[in-house]
Amino acid sequence: MTGPAPRPLPPRPASDTAPPGTRTADLLHTLRLVWRASPRHSVTYALTSLLGSALPAANLYIGKLLLDEVARAAQGGVTYGALLSLLGVQVALVVLGSLLSTVQSASQQLLGDSLQHSVSRRILDKASGLSVEAFENAETYDKLQQAYREVGSRPLGVATQLVGLAGAAVTLASVGALMARLGFWVLPLVLLASLPGVIVSNRFGVEGYRMLRRQTHDARVQNYLGGLLTSDTLVKEVRLFGFEPYLLRRWRDYYLGFRQQLEALVRRRSGWGFAASLVSALLIGLASALILRRAAAGQITVGDFSVFVLGITQVQGTVAGLLNGVSGIYQNLLYMRNLFDFLELPDRDLDAGETWYGPIDTIEFQGVGFRYPLTDRDVLSGVSFTVRRGEALALVGENGAGKTTLVKLLTRLFEPTSGRILLNGQDAARFSPRSVQKEMSIIFQDFGQYQMSARENVALAEVSRLDDAPGVQGAVDRAGAAFVETLPGGLETPLGRLFQGGRQLSGGQWQRLALARLYFRAASVLVFDEPTAALDARAEFETMEALRTQARDRITLLISHRFSTVRLADRIIVLEGGVIVESGSHQELLARGGKYAVLYDLQARGYAANEEPAAPA
Length: 617
Ligand SMILES: Nc1ncnc2c1ncn2[C@@H]1O[C@H](COP(=O)(O)OP(=O)(O)OP(=O)(O)O)[C@@H](O)[C@H]1O
What we know:
Pfam families: ABC_tran
Bound molecules: adenosine-5'-triphosphate
Organism: Deinococcus phoenicis
Main location: membrane
Protein name: Xenobiotic-transporting ATPase
Strand content: 5-15%
Subcellular location: Cell membrane
């Protein structure tokens, strides 16, 4: 599906107030990245570019000699052979030029490809080592997204622009040396004439960039609005409520705002651009008049004059390229800082610590507290409880009470900010998170729907057993996901609608597969976070029955808003504002008449109300 072309978002570059050494270090770092990506293509690209940069001066010089010889030939004394040999050199230069540029662009393309691959690889390596915490931090996530988006252009941009700068210096020095022979004022005047245009274009380049930056927030909102209109998952709701015109109007309002700013910028840029070209023309006119005076005095040849005329365009183009290259490198380095910031984020070594072996028989929370990074509020505090093998513990509480957070701590995705968690009486922090996680299996509230085969959807819980067909089948049976057999390719059927040939499943079917994934891993701790939210009544009943059987030789943790599910647990913990306010069995908590009883009563009354016969009209 194609949506409206998204407005280019200027990615947020790192602050340009970084210490002066940072840019140099980033430049070197970028060049190292480029070099490592492909030394062979880096060298080829640099060499062909530099050699090619000396060609304009060589061409100018041969052209001058040829013209002078032609002029002399008019007076006789020059052989046809001499003219032909100069022509031969000129043709050879043209052939060399096109050979160099062919090799240059081929090596640039291959270097770009290697670079994109190697930097993407580094980003993905980094992303796989980051903690879950890092992903929940909006700024880090932004950096990751941006690094990934920019990976194809920025590092190569820095390298090619840097080589371009060196090439421009070579061109300028060689062409400049030729022109300087025509009079000491020629080169300064021509250089001066190049400046106004470059200054204006740079100044408005920066303004344009700032404008885009100012618009970043609004552009994101506009893109979001466009995304709502083109989203396959939201189309049902958008159509039914019919708010397309509202979305379109808001989308257009943003566009009109951007358009106004763009028009103002274009007007000013055109005015200044025109003024700059006038100044430039005056200076070139002055230089030409001076050259012509020397020509009138017979002090320069027709070849010299051609060096002057053709040299002007060459110098102006090179100066513009040089200054634009400097600002281009600077801008690209700002983006590279984002990439480096991301690559420099601390990893969370999931294998650090002692290795945990064997089943977990008890989990004990001792005064556990937790605060999300960059927030100023504890979402859990003083949480203490113990759960033993064979027990099913349910967590209840209203939205935002801290249930999922508690599970994240239990599963070592996050570490407590206070208190400790003991496993079989030993501090969990001593053990490597990964080795502990191997003993745990989970179905999250927002479980994954992997656009892969049904088998992979189950076996991802333990990829080393990806080919364990009986194991997968067993998990599928336990999860009541028998529908898999009715799929055209059985367990091998690709799922989801993202790729061709994929079968889309219903929400409940996806959830059953996620349950199968949980069962597939041989774990001593099972965590069910709203495991039945998308299930029908029968499936919920079956799941709960299976869960009760599973629970006998394991620790089971259950989060649910459905009391029909919760009441099956041996013990229930009631969380409120991150604190345990009650705990006990279903019967005990009802008898106590506290928070649990109130919540239970509310839900029970909801059912009862639905069962009341309709009042006669
Ligand atoms: N990544 C995060 N960064 C900052 N705060 C968070 C983050 N995730 C959750 N919170 C906050 O932590 C509190 C507890 O959230 P949690 O998801 O644990 O609640 P819950 O009891 O599972 O809620 P629900 O029943 O809605 O699933 C909430 O106030 C929430 O706003």
